[in-house]
């Protein structure tokens, strides 16, 4: 028998890494922590923590009154002016409907505008930090242990490990590496990707010498998705770590940034979570480059505004944040929502809810958008972001069942309502447009009542003031676009960022390009989100698909199949507008253009060539491209050094590499016990192996789920070894 494989297989945890007795283990000793499921109808235990955190910034009531009060006054003024446009000659059903929709939508953009004003003030004052965090200067010392958690689900193992390698080396450069451990938490279901993950994990350990602090665990059943993945780690290992840093598969964080926010957690025992602002990087397609430019230029203004008036009632975006493990375990055990999917079941957008529950339990939740060194990537195309957005849409709409949770802070409820609103506003915009056409149609074909039922010397002339309508339109567009202008002005006051974006002129041109193309994409995105909302209301679950992160182009015919319906809708809408009146058609031209040209627009924005052409022209530049920080250079070098070939067949990889087979065997989950559920895929897979004359036949016969079950079983590995006839276990 292979001694390495057998000793690892029978070692503690079934692990493969250096253990106390010289064996190999993939995981450290377990240090369990209780994480109870929370009740949404009962008040939580706060253990004497104050209702108002001591880290709450000063004048927070005044800040919130300024932002929300100003937005309310703007909305009231907009409603008054719109009412003059629509109902100056008397109320009608359609007029009231359009007015209500206008008020709801106007309040949405008014709040974004007033929040952006707060962000503008914060940016000019170089705010966005707090908690004693400094952007520069000597790094603080650390006294506790922190776990960096990298959940992954059917992602490219090479990309994941390259990012983790960059973070490991960046952390080592800070001199604080001994305070951190790294966990790859796999929920991968594809057996080929799973085995590649294990090979990449072993290679990462070998390259870094990090056997004692780099760990790997795969869950055989990915219950409750990412939230369940993190919760399972907390229950098994959380007791050994004061903090955990949650990441996504595309996350990068500089070592110095991590050290600073962990030190802030140590200094402030009442803080439960600190969220950084992840900047989007590494975009190559036109769509991804637009996303990263918008995130880099407009994102800080928006995030500073949110942090400015949210204070210690901040939010959590699910990654690039440090969390106090005790606070998470104590308060963030998520219950299943009552009812059937898509509204019932486990909570998809778990991050908002976890933050709200921790704040409900007396823990402060802070955002520090002024701290650099936190990064993520964008989906490469509108199609890819629509797939992700469909899942987010379902998760946010689920919050309708959570927003009434007993004891939530009102700001936490507002987070959830705004999340719901970010998707509900799309069908509202569509209804607003359609109702506007109906009003124009009604005014054309309805016979006016000049005198009505009352006696009067003067007729009641129908009246819609075109000048007033134009004024309302200009004011609305000004409030909608003002945050972009404020972000550009703030950029001018930051010399380094201004130079990194190509200078004042190129940055202005980039804002113009992003605004024009984004304006054309907006109607298509509106319909995509509207269809997502409708499908959820009809009971369709979004599922869980791995996100595409490369810049591979979308085939043109696939784009045609995905977007022809939006083009057709644009043509029909344009025809209706033209038949009503030419001025209405001209007024709707920006919306119609985006819809009619949906197919070429989707194709062009997903093009890498188009993105690189603008890069060569010096447009849509961000500082992280023109002068990459250390962590991005490390990640690029690690990506360049990794093997290009991926997508190997799992059985072939294992049988060709005895060391990998031994490690894989070592990391098997515990065998099924009496009374445990029976896995039909395993039974069928073992039978197919028994009937296969050689490994190649087994590969052809096994379905993906059967192969995963076989590779997760000692019996399955033994039968594969017997097929190979190599005597691995002889």
UniProtKB/TrEMBL annotation:
InterPro entries: Glucans_biosynth_gluTrFase_H (IPR023725), Glyco_trans_2-like (IPR001173), Glycosyltr_2/OpgH_subfam (IPR050321), Nucleotide-diphossugar_trans (IPR029044). It is found in: Cell inner membrane; Cell membrane. One of its GO terms (cellular component) is plasma membrane. Residues 12-21 have a biased composition (Gly residues). It holds the Pfam family Glyco_trans_2_3. Residues 1-21 are annotated as: Disordered. Its EC number is 2.4.1.-. Keywords: Cell inner membrane, Cell membrane, Glycosyltransferase, Membrane, Transferase, Transmembrane, Transmembrane helix. It comes from Gluconacetobacter asukensis. It is a multi-pass membrane protein. Involved in the biosynthesis of osmoregulated periplasmic glucans (OPGs). The chain crosses the membrane at residues 92-121, 416-441, 471-493, 505-528, 563-587. Residues 245-457 form the Glycosyltransferase 2-like domain. Belongs to the glycosyltransferase 2 family. OpgH subfamily. It comes from the Bacteria. The keyword NADP does not apply. Pathway: Glycan metabolism; osmoregulated periplasmic glucan (OPG) biosynthesis. The keyword Membrane applies. This is Glucans biosynthesis glucosyltransferase H. GO terms for molecular function: hexosyltransferase activity. GO terms for biological process: glucan biosynthetic process.
